[in-house]
Amino acid sequence: MPNPSHAPSTFDAASWQQRLHILAEKHRVAGAALGILSGDTILCATYGMANARARIPVQPDTVFQIGSITKVYTTTAVQCLVAQGLLDLEKPLSTWLPELRLADGLENRITLRHLVTHTSGIAGDIFTDTGRGDDCLERYVDALASVPSNLPPGESFSYCNSGFSLVGRIISAVTGRVWDAAMHDLVFKPLGLENTMTLPEEAILHSAAVGHERQHDGTFAPVARWVLPRSGGPAGGIISSVSDVLAFARFHLHDGSLPNNEALLPAELIRDMRSPHAEMPFDNGETKSVGLGWFLQNWGGHSLFGHDGDTISQTACLRVMPSKGLAVALLTNGGPARDLYRSLCDEIFAELAGVSLPPLLQPKSDPEPFDLERHAGVYQGFEDNIEVVRHEGVPLLRWTFSGSLADVMPTTEGEYETVVAGRDLLLHRDPGQTRWRPATFVRLPDGRPCLYAGNRAYPQAR
User: Which is the catalytic residue, given 68, 149, 313, 343?
Assistant: First the structure.
């Protein structure tokens, strides 16, 4: 397979540094740290500002918020406790939290496997701020008693942040340590992740990236808020450098072995994390199924596992290809991070693995007509709704946020740019964005109409 015309022809730090600079300028991001793991060698490149106001550049050891990639770390901690006999993926949550109360007695039906595969049915986007104290997860989980479920346990995939906060609470209960300390003991310290942490008071001791927003004059300025509520830590609270993210990826590539070849975890527990456990009920052009924590993809016949993460104007991306011993991580703090990541991966995976990325979803020239009469209506999350309406003769998606979700989002309502892609499929994107995402209409096993958008299930309002 021919290399892209501008891709470096060797695994050379200076060459990839140059490509990062060129592509970051093209896509107009605030700052970025790129890491490439090939075999046992880690290469890092940087671009832009960690903090534009303070004029602090991104350095190789700058720490970024890695957002939902945290979920894989939390799941790894779960597997450590499984190996120690302290947890079991198949037992109900009430086994470890007898005081737990969920809607409809679900504490006796939901298992840890449901939580780490996003199949618990619990409403996923609950960002209740329960303070910065060590009891924040306990208070957060107590508040879940009043939250109705979207789906029965095990019925279908639906991305679930709140489920991972619940996982963190269980980790705390069985270890007797707050989640932050348990993660240090179970994962960070054994893997030698010296630039990985969970709390802002730890991050401030490092070169720490802040999120940025583009201003009207085209420059970037730091956002007013740095971190999400601490109660969401197990779902998205880890802060790390790009080399530490790749050291974590290398641990998974080596099936749970540390650099000294000592096995921290049985290989079968690590391999199980990247084995398919739930199929995607929609096609987004990339992800085919979910493992334990990881999302699973296939590029040109090569299996990959990975995850992305978003916090407040910070985005992190990680992809790992076991057959080539290759992993690529990108940490950013403002601008179209995924467009930059795809451009980099197009070159990196072609040059170092001879593999092309799958094409992005694109509108079809002559799609089957969309069944608007059948699909029009309101589709409900817990604190967000999507309405499907006819606008100037074509279907349109409108969204609204409320409650704790509105507190962490930049706006509370809006409309997606929407195009028809089939009888039960729309493509949508935020105004001004380039990447299309699917809005897929399905029937749940119990017969209810449901919209899948943004990896979430939205049953139709009755």
Answer: 68
